User: Which sequence fits this backbone?
């Protein structure tokens, strides 16, 4: 049985291109005692992976020649551990490959989730990120005005729906009219700004005359300045990502602290791994709504592991619509 | 009876000079029903006043010709309100003048405080600032490493002592050897860095190999970047002032949000006015220790209202030693 893998061929400069990756075939190793063989069903592609390529993500870095890292949902196809049996559906750090070998303790069961890809999207790491930042850190109150950039991405779309469920007034910021329509018509955003066609600052001034109560920052950069200058007193800012500088080696400065003093903001640095111990609590609160279609996640699915590099590059250019997954053929 | 007042003569550019102020004499107005005449005993001079001169402080701005604003402790010398009697010691926004007239609702009693100037210093606004940021926002735990710039100033000195009382390891940053000695020998800091003679970043690396748990930011600027790059996971940052840019019209950028994500910091914008409703709670917790000399405040006292401008300019240059007060002759 052959394993098909995607490795890093060379460090990208700026936006990654498919040529930065290589597709290789290798033999599967034999299982040692306590190990489990997982056949990938879905691979998750996420913005944080770009930081790993720059050697500066909290989860580690990737060198040329390494198999790309990534979370997968798959099926146990062989097991030398009593904890797992052929046919079990599991979540694990399988990487960009069709098969992966794991110690039995590195697998997590996927249960109660009707559609298994949801274990990588709205009930997976992006969902947990949104839930932790919005519910556990920002603690939304009905009537709060929340602004979410990258509003139709996996984290943003979940945060937006959870904020609506919490009774907030939800304003998205996206980069295309198609995303505006999707945010409003399907995700239920109250407003959505196309940052490429509208003046964000002026539009926020019109939409939020009393300021922004919660900013779920997924992008950093200039937008963090713009929104920080428009916070309501007592605002909460979740610092969760920096897409704006993901493809750059420069570290942008943050907003003037004066803006956060003026608004008495509480600003939270969010790293989703810290909330892993509470993952079940999050799933318990959301799984019924997800299974019932009340909390949704559009999935942008590419077929075939060899197409993962192109799908990742598309994600980096913001051309995806929803959670980017690679489905194994 | 004459009132001697200090007015703003002209907006300072950069650091203020005594020539930016004027001393004028005026007649006292007659009291209306419900009003009280207060004779100033002590006037408080504080860094926030510089921002008022730039028209950008939260408490309002001052125009040329206006009497300078400021909090005072004084004595009621005439009253047309049953709430107050001649001889009562009160705290109020008396301004830079020897007498002030107030509606009776604008006065606050000074009681239980042995030394009345403490109502403007360690048990006054600077003390409340330190207490709110450290105790209510940062919530120190024994063993926490806390860094305090402007460590011997009114807020910093109080925060440092309160942090020691809470069992923290307290590191100050100051601008002279004299202040280093005072911080360690008198205020009880564990360490104190002379930022003019030592490399702050390297010294912090040595002193805090496991990072900084609490940064009580009183200065903004470059130091906020330096300390933000050295935070421990779970750190708290209190944003409370920006002396570094007090005398500039430029707004400096803040640290990269990446630093606060990496440390999962919680960052609090602090405006002391928000905590006025809890002032008594703070005083109750501290007044015995202050009256017993266990929590101390060095006061840098200048005599005579006409010397207030020079004392303020000295404060702006960081040449004060302790809380700056003007004592009326």
Assistant:
């Amino acid at each position: 049985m052959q394993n098909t893998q995607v490795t890093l061929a060379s460090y990208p400069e700026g936006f990654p291109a498919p040529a930065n990756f290589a597709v290789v075939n290798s033999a599967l190793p034999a299982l040692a005692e306590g190990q489990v063989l997982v056949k990938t069903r879905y691979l998750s592609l996420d913005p944080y992976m770009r930081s790993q390529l720059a050697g500066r993500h909290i989860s580690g870095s990737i060198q040329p020649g390494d198999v790309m890292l990534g979370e997968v949902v798959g099926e146990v196809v062989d097991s030398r551990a009593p904890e797992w049996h052929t046919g079990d559906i599991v979540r694990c750090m399988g990487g960009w490959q069709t098969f992966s070998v794991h110690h039995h303790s590195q697998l997590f069961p996927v249960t109660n989730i009707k559609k298994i890809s949801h274990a990588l999207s709205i009930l997976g790491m992006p969902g947990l990120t949104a839930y932790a930042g919005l519910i556990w850190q920002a603690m939304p109150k009905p009537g709060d005005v929340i602004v979410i950039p990258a509003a139709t991405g996996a984290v943003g779309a979940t945060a937006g729906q959870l904020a609506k469920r919490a009774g907030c007034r939800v304003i998205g910021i996206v980069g295309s009219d198609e995303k505006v329509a999707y945010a409003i018509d399907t995700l239920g955003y109250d407003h959505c700004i196309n940052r490429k066609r509208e003046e964000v600052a002026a539009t926020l001034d019109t939409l939020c005359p009393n300021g922004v109560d919660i900013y779920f920052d997924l992008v950093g950069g200039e937008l963090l300045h713009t929104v920080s200058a428009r916070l309501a007193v007592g605002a909460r800012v979740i610092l969760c990502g920096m897409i704006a500088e993901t493809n750059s080696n420069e570290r942008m400065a943050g907003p003037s602290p004066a803006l956060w003093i003026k608004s008495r903001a509480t600003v939270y640095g969010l790293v989703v791994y810290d909330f892993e111990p509470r993952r079940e609590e999050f799933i318990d609160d959301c799984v019924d709504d997800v299974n019932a279609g009340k909390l949704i996640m559009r999935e942008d699915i590419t077929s075939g592991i060899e197409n993962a590099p192109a799908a990742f590059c598309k994600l980096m250019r913001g051309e995806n619509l929803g959670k980017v997954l690679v489905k194994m053929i």
Notes: Chain B is about 25% helix and 25% strand.
